[in-house]
Amino acid sequence: MSVLVELGHGNLRVLLSAQNHDLLLTLGAFLESRQCQVSPAGNGTEAIHLLKQSGCPPFDIIITDIELPSAAAGWEVLRTARRLHPHTHIVVMTDASWTEAVVEALRLGAFDYLMKPIRLSDLERLVNRILDRLVLLEQSRNLAPRLLS
Questions:
Q1: Residue 6: inside a domain, yes or no?
Q2: Which residues form the domain of 113?
Q3: How far apart are CA 99 and CA 115, in angstroms?
Q4: Could you report the per-residue pLDDT of 58-115, keeping only the tens digit for each?
Q5: Residue 115 lies in a domain
């Protein structure tokens, strides 16, 4: 059962970037069924464009495939996201043969990873863990001014 709930500023905003169209649709539909606002990107260029869009609110979560169509694209999404939105939780997707990629992604600032084939229960647990962190951060932001007065 999902514990996803609306945050004070709205639903979780998720940028989802995957090379496989079916994976993009499946994960997007699953996240939307859990009250997430999903912005899909079929490649790294689209994802980076969404990250750079002016007026676009920052994403709460970025889920990106490291193995996007152009070799550097997944890494560039990770680096761009970390530079433009340092507080966003970035999750990388890869297959088990790329374990070195997971270590490198975590070193570059990814919050966590998902191994393909992705189980929806793993995705849900991970998103719920991120939501728990976001709720705690929001509570501490709301509490800080009261403690200082």
A1: no
A2: 13-148
A3: 9
A4: 899 999 998 766 656 788 999 999 999 988 999 999 887 778 888 999 999 999 999 9
A5: yes
